[in-house]
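Translate sequence into structure tokens.
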Amino acid sequence: MNMTSLEKITRRQPPARMSRRFFMGGSVAVVCTWMLGEPLLSPAAFASAIASDAGSSPARQAFLQASLFLTGHAQLPPAQVERMYLALAASDPAFVDQIQALQGFIAERKLTAAALQAALDAEKAPFAAVPRRIMLTWYTGIVGSGAKAKCVAYEDALMNVAVSDQLRPPSYAYGAYGTWSAQPIQKIEG
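Result follows.
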């Protein structure tokens, strides 16, 4: 069958097929975005955090300063700071006041990070659990526990960042890191 040049141009091409890998990767990305984003971006959690934290510049700044002090990092990713702050504020209405009190305690006593928890425990400060919660959140990427636990960081959680030069965070792949990128070996029967 001979086609003229006009027929070649106007002939409809069949739609490109989407590979299974591309589809699955996109599906996983959508689900992960929804699962990680939903707890922090749901209207109720967001409104609750904002309402309990109106005019929050001092509390957010106190959270950032306490996080830098406790983790020993010179800087932390701003988006991650914001996610963790909002999640902690949404999980505990007293967090906003407690973080400011903790920052005042640190500034007043001129303590080192290593001496902070012992001083808080010795004085039975009402915000003594806050440094533990902050460190747990930064290193595991999880706020809360049990049914109320919310994942706010995974790959960028400090426990994974600390070993990233040698290890990668575990994934759902059934094999070594990167094995999903190779084509599977097909058996030829016969």
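Note: The beta strands are 142-143, 150-151.
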